[in-house]
Amino acid sequence: MSARPPSTPTGDAGRADVAVVGAGPIGLAIAWRCAARGLRVTVHDPAPGSGASAVAAGMLSPVAEAYFGERELTGLLVASAARWPEFAAELGEVTGAALGYRTEGTLMVGLTADDLAEARRLWAYQQELGLPVTPLRPTELRDREPALAPRVRGGALAPTDHQVDPRLLVPALRTAAERAGAVLVPGAVRRLADVDAGVTVVAAGCGAAALTGLPVRPVKGQVLRLRAPGGAAPDFRHVIRGYADGESVYLVPRHGGEVVVGATVEERRDTDVSAGAVLRLLRAAVELVPELAEYDLVETAAGLRPGTPDNAPILGPLPGRPDVLAATGHHRHGIVLTPVTADLIADLVTTGVPDPLLDPFRPERFGRTTEEDPWN
Ligand SMILES: Cc1cc2nc3c(=O)[nH]c(=O)nc-3n(C[C@H](O)[C@H](O)[C@H](O)COP(=O)(O)OP(=O)(O)OC[C@H]3O[C@@H](n4cnc5c(N)ncnc54)[C@H](O)[C@@H]3O)c2cc1C
User: What's the whole-model pTM score?
Assistant: First the structure.
């Protein structure tokens, strides 16, 4: 992998050193990190924060999301999650904003014997990787979370899987980027050739495909937001995720009374909400935590995850274009991967030297992009 970014500002008064296309969590965090290093940064987006992050649950789950066949991705997730405490503290300090960052950990559960057998296969794999997963007996599980249904057969604790509220995170990242000197430019980028900068970073989520020809596709996720009666805090503190009669579901409690219930995974590009998805998600949620039936249903929504053929992000220079860096394809993991992506891309921009952590994620793994030179 090679890069030819400027290591110092260009000195050209009208030209940005770095233009970031996309003001989601990834683009804004990169802009923040680059601007904080003294580079002149512009961020281009017609609707900042309107992509997948607008509906995302905000689980920081390298352990619960360590799936078979994704070892390299898991390594990056673990590396990024390890940066989260410092990242959250720094962002909170710079902006004074609350992020809803919580560290109670995640309970992974199985409702039926079949659900538990399925979950245990995955926990065994996660433990084999050396990840912190502690199986719990049903009594231990309910001691930790009395709100769990008595029918829940068993579970395990992933203490290092935390959460943040993306609806607080993204505005905070915007504030941090702007305070560091980045300039938000409202408007969509139609062609990379229209961007005038030393380095262009494409962090446009699903929009990256049209700009670069990279294989980023929308993966639809429907999600619900419930609210505890009277706005009280939910009766459970951990993120709870697992299987209920074969249905995969997660429940993310927030201090303000919100519980995010998610999410479908569909190979579709519309953002319609279907009655069937709401029914399945609610049924699974209530089977795991019965009191949720008493909560208000305050929002149903769908978002489009920027998926890739191997579920891993695409990070680094486009083949033959050292001045165009991709930072996209974060699929289900863009919130947890925000700190590591921002640091690695900002390092690449300022030093021109790619961190070895980037190696498995470079754009070349998919061959040349489909259009030889789509920006000309
Ligand atoms: C239902 C659901 C639940 C999720 N839960 C989690 C979770 O718990 N944990 C987690 O880590 N991740 C989660 N994700 C994934 C996460 O939301 C994404 O990976 C993340 O938002 C990707 O960030 P991004 O900045 O790359 O893209 P996005 O958040 O999609 O933002 C892209 C931005 O680029 C802009 N843009 C697009 N095209 C252009 C263009 N041509 N010019 C200018 N701007 C453009 C858009 O307007 C948008 O603001 C979830 C996603 C969904 C849908």
Answer: 0.95
